[in-house]
Specification:
Elements (H helix, E strand, L loop, with lengths): L6 E6 L4 H12 L2 E9 L7 H10 L4 E6 L1 H14 L11 H20 L3 E3 L8 H12 L4 E3 L1 H4 L4 H10 L13 E5 L2 E5 L29 E8 L2 E5 L2 E2 L2 H14 L4 E7 L5 E7 L1 H17 L2 H19 L6 H14 L4 E8 L2 E8 L7 H4 L11 H19 L7 H9 L5
Parallel strand pairs: 1-2, 1-4, 2-3, 4-5
Antiparallel strand pairs: 6-7, 7-12, 8-9, 8-13, 9-10, 11-12, 13-14
Helix pairs in contact: 1-7, 3-4, 4-5, 8-9, 10-11
Bound molecules: arginine.
Arginine (ARG) binds next to α4, β6 and β7.
Length: 419
Amino acid sequence: MTVEKKGKLILAYSGGLDTSVAIPWLKDQGYDVIALTMHVGQQSDEMDEIREKAIKAGAVKAYVVDLREAFVDTFVWPALKSNAVYQGVYPLNSALSRPMIAQALIWCAEKEGAVAVAHGCTGKGQDQVRIEVCCNALNPDIEVLAPVRDWQFTREEEMDYAEAHNISVPTTRQNPYSIDDNLWGRSIECGVLEDPWNKPPKGAYALTVDPKDAPDEEVTIEITFEAGIPVAINGKKMDSLELIEFMNKAAGQAGVGRIDMVEDRLVGFKSREVYECPAAVALIEAHRKLETITLSKDVLKTKKELEVRFAEMAYEGYWFSPLMEATQAFMDATQKSVNGTVRMILYKGNATVNGMKSDTSVYSKELATYSAGDIFDQAAAVGFIKIWGMPIKTWRQVHKDKNVNPIEKLIIAKGEGAL
Ligand code: ARG
């Protein structure tokens, strides 16, 4: 049977079974498949073999690109500036990589003159939503395919198809979880974790030790920030990748960064998710604390609201939206003064800040002190209190009945003997 030739297609290729099977499957649909593998700091060390594997599976060409630096500069640092955590806890490690994958797919498609791109996400997750919404935003003329969503293979059928197409199937027992990892953290889902009563087994973790097995000595590190971005550890300048790797190790060894949550998915259901994000958890805490001395009260308050929006947009695939662009501009404007050094203690699962200093600090010891050197004008407090309390005083004058106080209530109920 001859199939109609459809043109070139760029496939986001991880080297795993699903995307390997996708190569011959897409070929059968009439596409010339070009594999694009993106290195974002995942644990897999087979980046070199991946190219070969793609060609062996039938790709006409295979790119392997190291996007780690771009990932940090364009996605991770803006997230850190925004203290971005979805539903208050998830640092968005997986979510942040999706707009970049979309960007790389579209870039490659335009360069190659491809008619379509494809990814290996299933139809149940939100990674499909993020990648497709982002691809469509960047170039609506390029079709986005999701073979794993479309082919409706059972696991066995997929294995048979792989064998028939000379694709090696994993001989070891399948990993009991669905894992996605990069520099900013590792996501672990499925298997026994699907029951929220089940404790995550030891084997689910790879970057962190169990806090109870962490060393008995606390580790002290000093993190220096410039314009909201960490640039040095213990006084030593480090580039972004080095710094994140250092933090992943130091915090991971201290058992910092484990997250176990039930998360509200964009696709309508709740899902039990386990993450380990040692660097992200420690750096966000350090950054958040530094902001308390370098930002004004009103900026902190408004920023907090926008941080929630930022996290939601990153989670929901709205990276390339106008609101995201405006939100990032706001964040950048606030970060100019976020400079200084934070002293952090890593100890048995906790990352705590116990000291901060900054040349752009607006903390004033002369105003705060209760000791000698106080410059706070205490006499001015009298007039301030009068005006500050005036609206409540005025209201209470009219609504006197609201004035029943707890002591009065007690006496009414129990008599004077209650006193
Ligand atoms: N629930 C997370 C998110 O939606 C993690 C997704 C991880 N993907 C995976 N294939 N395990 O951002």
